[in-house]
Each structure stands twice: as structure tokens, then as C-alpha cells.
Amino acid sequence: MSLIELRGVTKTFASGAESVTPVSGLDFDVEQGEFVCLMGPSGSGKTTLLHMLAGIDRPTEGAVVVNGERVHEMAASELARWRTRTVGYVFQQYNLIPVLTAFENVEVPLLLLKMSKQDRSRRVTTALAAVGLSDRAHHLPRQMSGGQQQRVAIARAIVTDPVAVFADEPTGNLDREAATTTMTLLRRLVDEFGKTLVMVTHDPQAAKQADRVVHLDKGKIVTEASHA
Ligand SMILES: Nc1ncnc2c1ncn2[C@@H]1O[C@H](COP(=O)(O)OP(=O)(O)O)[C@@H](O)[C@H]1O
Ligand SMILES: [Mg+2]
Questions:
Q1: How many angstroms separate the most distant Cα atoms in the chain?
Q2: pLDDT at 228
Q3: pLDDT band at 223 (very low <50, low <70, confident <90, very high)
């Protein structure tokens, strides 16, 4: 069984009389410890797909099974708990809380889990060290470069020790050097920390790091290429 299994997944957004179906009848598997890259034109359903993989959104039809759990059947509150324990999410715009330090930002997901303050602190320290930012723990986001902010966001995504990490255009706002550092770090999450990673990107350099590239067009998989 694959870590992630999508079967016949369709997502329709209805807005008044109009409706959009960005993902339609999709079958998609990701293996444990695999790094998959999703590419495709703007509007091809990449973000919608990633949201369903991460339990941020549920499909209109079909099944999403992650780590043996049937995500599409979960009630909203159950889904929120499942998300905190099982997945990490990295955004193009980092989405850090501006008034919190790097340490406090990374700590946020742990506040949703039952854990002592000491355990929390130890985990945050480990996650910041893993992304090479131990010396920035008490900086605010605006006191850091874009690349550093994205590394804080990656620390926040891994601090709960999730099985899978999802990243939506994580290098989209970064210069080449910061993008390379970010991609090296994401590759290490897979190789050293055993995470499963699904990343959306437009950047061919970033896609080179993946084990497999999946191309989407109009909500369907059009081609798959394996690097390994
Ligand atoms: N919450 C939503 N409500 C209505 N339409 C949406 C919503 N999210 C995405 N869409 C539509 O679905 C299509 C695919 O969007 P998206 O998955 O963001 O594509 P991509 O990430 O590949 O650019 C777009 O036409 C978009 O406008
Ligand atoms: Mg998108």
C-alpha cells in the first residue's frame, strides 16, 4: 500500500450558478519516502490537489487515503487534529506570523498537541538547528531574509515530526541562491529524515531534486517522468 492513495478524486467549487472543477477523476499514488514534484500551467489544479492531500480541503468525490487513514471521511475537527499530527505544509509566501519570533513561529503547531513546555522547547530547538537557524531563534520574520523566513517555515512544517510534507511553490519568491539552499534542505528532509514530500513548482532547477515529476493539465495527470 502506498503512503498516499487518491482514487477518482474530483473537486468542484460552486459559486452561484457557475462551477469550476479544477481536479477531475484523479488517481495518484505517492510512496513512503518519495519526493514527487507537481508541475503544470497556472490554474491546472496543483494547489487544489495539494490542499486535498494535506487535508486542508476535502474532495467532492473520491477517496484520499494517507498513512492508512481515510481523510475524505473525516469531520472537520477530526481533520484538523489529523493534519497537525500527520502533515506539514510550506507556502510560497512563508506565512509566518509577523509579531512572533522564529522560535515562537515554529512552536505554534506544537501548541495544538499535548506536550510539556520543556518538550516543546526541545523540539523547536531541534527543528531550528535542522534548518541551520539556531542563531536566528529570537529574530522576527522582518529581521530575516526571504530564504531564512522560508527555512523557519520549513522548521515549522517538520516540528511535529509529520510523515508527509507538502510545499506549494516554496522557491517562487526566492532568488537563485536562496532557492538552491531551500531545495537542498527539502531534499535532506527526504534523505536524512525519511519524510515523504510533494512539491508544486514552476522551477525546472527545483524539479531536478525530485524522484518523480508529475505534469498536470486541466486537473488531470498528463505525463510522469522518473529521475531515479
Ligand atoms: N476556493 C475556490 N473557489 C473557487 N474556485 C477555486 C477555488 N480554489 C481554486 N479555484 C479555481 O480552481 C482552478 C485551479 O486552481 P488552483 O488549484 O489554484 O491551480 P494552480 O495551483 O495549478 O494554479 C482555478 O480556476 C481557480 O480559480
Ligand atoms: Mg497554485
A1: 53
A2: 55
A3: confident
CB 59 within 8 Å of CB 67: no
Q: Of how many residues is the chain composed?
A: 228
- Calculate mean pLDDT across residues 67-71: 94
Among 10, 13, 222, the mutation site with the greatest number of ligand 1 atoms within 8 A of its Cβ is: 13
Domain 32-58+75-226 has CATH 3.40.50.300: yes
Output the average pLDDT for the chain: 95
- Separation of alpha carbons 24 and 38, rounded Å: 16
Q: Ligand 1 within 6 A of 48 CB?
A: yes
What is the C-alpha to C-alpha distance for residues 93 and 172, in angstroms, rounded to an integer? 8
Task: Please give the Cα distance from 83 to 112 (Å, whole number).
Answer: 11
Ligand nearest to the CA of 168: 2
Question: Which ligand has an atom closest to residue 22 CA?
Answer: 1
> In sequence order, which residues have a C-beta less than 8 Å from that of residue 222 and are 6 or more positions away?
40, 215, 216
Question: Considering the chain, what percentage of its residues have pLDDT values greater than 70?
Answer: 99
pTM: 0.95
pLDDT recorded at residue 52? 95
Mutate to test the pocket of ligand 1, among 21, 48, 60, 198 (most ligand atoms within 8 A of CB): 48
* Among candidate residues 95, 11, 15, 106, the one with its CA nearest the CA of residue 51: 11
Answer yes or no: is the C-beta of 219 below 6 A from any ligand 1 atom.
no
